[in-house]
Amino acid sequence: MNVPEFHMEAPAAARYHRQAVEQIINSVEEGINCALLGPRLSGKTLLLHYLESYIAKLLGWKCAYIDLLTINTTTQQAFFADIIQKIRMRFSQNNGFKLNTRDNNIASSADFRAFLSDCLNASGSDLVLIFDPLEALPTDLVQALLTSLRAAYMDQQSLDKRVIAIVSGALNLATLAVGESSPFRGIANRVFVSHLTAHDSLELTLEYLSQQGVNPTKPALERLLQATSGDIYLIHRISQSCVQIANSRLDNKLRAKDVNDVVERFLRDEVVQYAPLVVAVGIIEENPDLLHCILLLMEQDIVPRSRLPLPLSPDLDPLYLTGVVERTEGDGYRLANLIYRRFLKQHFSPARVGHVLAMAGLWDSAIDYLEASIKQGNQRSQTDVITAIINAIYASQDLNQAVHFFRRGLRAAFEVHEAKIWYHMPQEKHLHLIGSPEVNILLDNEENFKIPIAEDRLEARAFRQQIPLRSHEIHGKLYRAIPLAVPGSKPIGVVTISGDLGKERFSDPREIDFQLLGFLNQAARALYTVSLRRQELIFAGRVQGSLLPETLPQIPNWEIAATWKPAHETSGDFYDFISLPGGRMGIVIADVVDKGMGAALLMTMSRTLIRSYAGMYTDLPGYLLAKVNRRIITDLNAGLFVTLFYGVLNVDTGKLNYCNAGHPPPFLIVPGKEYEVKELRSSGMALGISEETEWTAASLTIPQGSWMLLYTDGVIEAQNQRGELFGQEQIIRTIRERSWNSAQEIQDELISAVYDFAGSNTRLDDITLMVLRRKTTQGKTTLGRT
Description:
- By secondary structure, the chain is α+β, with helices and mostly antiparallel strands.
- The chain contains 25 helices and 26 strands.
- The strands form six sheets. It has a six-stranded antiparallel β-sheet, sandwiched between helices.
- A hairpin with a 3-residue loop joins β9 (about 325-330) and β10.
- The protein is flat and about 90 Å long.
């Protein structure tokens, strides 16, 4: 490997990022593309200009640096035309290498690849192209460039010379440039410009101060390193200001106070525009888990990896890609320097964190931070917390969850610590207490939890009269009953509160009454919306349930069990058994990849279409799926898709002809000395994605005594409190250990195992499970009605 000998004339970015330089040169020599990623202002551009000169002059290769900041086009055709001209001009300037190309204003990706081939033919040797910085381009043009470079790479596989591309960008482009779905995945080496080590930070700082004739005291040097360590540009920027102070003295001495003053001034006047931190904040605020990690790091110097609530993969570490965190010995993380820490603490105030979490829909956590901000005296958070509460109520799954947020709003914004919400169910003559942990509005009929509307109680009178009422003092407390009014209709209920409202926060009682009534009116509308939505969902869920088979097929020599357990009122899961001619049976299990009414609609439509086509294409399951897929895309056009397994079973022979459209693979489990487990894997993507998709049918025979198990991802992806998945192995193990049981017993055991595994974790997905067992009894079978 021809690694350059670094001299002082080489830029610091090249000298102190020597490992990155070596990795890039090694990639070039091996003819492999390269993606260089690092924080903004980390010296990547200086490093790449140095490499351009080194590759061209010392290695004798033709190399061109393409400055993407000079690209002003927004369309792909204009972009590729501009890129072609810039490559031609750069090669001419650097290498005297002239290419005869027409000055077109538009060019396609194919034109760009043809141009690269012409360059190779004209040069007679490898060419190196450097594209920097990727963040100067819109995302779609970055994608187009990488895709074209990949296509060019594939075109050149049979050639003895090639174009080697080096692309460079900020850390926030890591997923696009080298992630799992990136066009550069698998054809380019990844190189990261990391933070400088403590030793290199010291060397660079001393080098710069020495060049300026500045003599730092030991405390000054320590504080300078503490403030800037790891960041090559920040070291230069802060040191530069320190030099100006030191050079104003006769002794050129730099003192600790000087460094403190410079750092404080930078934090006050400049840090909010410092590009690496601006990018870091954008990355952090897009990912609530990442934000949680940063908050932990702000509280402690070093946090072990195991304590961070984020899956840190060895492929792309999202925490490291923020550019503000460095790894430590012992598998830990910490913020890189004092300036980073101070800025992040200043930026991520409780108010800001609450706002970010509210935008992500993490309502409880958002309210916690906004409440903390109010306690710190931030009056603006008073309005923010009310907005978050109302949005949280609207987003609630049911009335009990909505009331939870209702109470939180009363406490956070108005210091109400005791409140009861009474709800009036349509067509009833009672007010029901809702939202208390011991209360279930649909099941609990205890007298303590309901009030007759006609009764002479404060809550009932306020509801009937539709005005707020106060009670006499009871046990030292004054109670107020306030109707929950919805415009154009009777109140939907009453809220009862006690105590002095916001006496520490509001000086004028009229102001708090005005704000409280405004909050209650908004909350009432939100509660009413949740109630209506839930009633609609309950009805839709009943309709869905009625579409499932009323009874399971009763087939001699077969045992069949099936269950459908929606996580909410409606479900995207469904299963079906379809009677077909010739003693055959259609078997369907599916999962719409969405929730709510949209998923319910697609589930209903998919079932109807499959039943419509099943009798027409009995022997062509792949063609059936293609027909259903086209109808879903053309008729619904909702951007939803459904994973589905469809099989046609000959109940006499046990032969199964099937297609799997992106669904979790069913299992065929054949008992014997060694259990044989076969997965019925996917033969095409899910339905609803592309009209051009095709599915290839496969077939197998279910031996006598064997089991077939079909399921949706709610089974295998059920999580326990530690975040572990139930998985496929537990399904197989359950059947192996109880192979003598009936299909119904196996199903019951599996469902019980899933719920035991999940424990108190209520965040379960829809669960659908089908168990088929072919008995060992011989003889012809007849398919009954379904």
